Each structure stands twice: as C-alpha cells, then as structure tokens.
Amino acid sequence: MLKITLKKGYIGVPDKQKKVLASFGLKKIGATVVKKDDEATKGMIRMVAHLIQVEKADNK
C-alpha cells in the first residue's frame, strides 16, 4: 500500500493533472490517501510526482 499526500497546490497545472489528483481524492494541501501499490497507481503518481509525497504504508 502507498500513502499519498498532497504537498503543493494545483492552481495553474494542466487539467489532466487535476483529474489525476481528483481521482486520488486529494482536494486540499496536506490531504492523505492510501492506495494499492499497482502499475496503474504508479503511472498516475508519475504524472503528478512534483505535487505529492509518496510513502510505503503499513499493511495492517
């Protein structure tokens, strides 16, 4: 599992990147979500890597 945190605002970024952040459910700076560690998620992370912080989450 991956813990994804929005670290920067997304004003001025392209619409495609805004849609990726919305699909993660990240709306405010500091918001955190936990997602599965699969190839689709990793591809989405690469698109917005400059806006987020990614960490390994516990598998509890």
- CA-CA gap between termini: 10 Å
Gyration radius, in Å: 11 Å
Fraction of residues in H or I helices: 25-40%
Order of helices and strands: EHEHE
Beta content:
15-25%
Strand order of the largest sheet: 2-1-3
By DSSP, the count of extended strands is: 3
CATH topology: Ribosomal Protein L30, Chain: A
CATH architecture name: 2-Layer Sandwich
What topology does this entry show?
Layout: E1 2-6, H1 15-24, E2 32-35, H2 39-47, E3 52-56
Antiparallel strand pairs: 1-2, 1-3
Kindly describe this structure.
With 60 residues, this protein is an alpha+beta fold. The chain has one domain: Ribosomal protein L30/L7 (Ribosomal Protein L30, Chain: A, 2-Layer Sandwich). Helices cover 32% and strands 23% of the residues. The chain has helices at residues 15-24, 39-47; strands spanning 2-6, 32-35, 52-56. Strands 2-1-3 form a three-stranded antiparallel sheet, with no helix packed on it. The radius of gyration is 11 Å and the shape is globular. The model has no long low-confidence stretch (mean pLDDT 94).
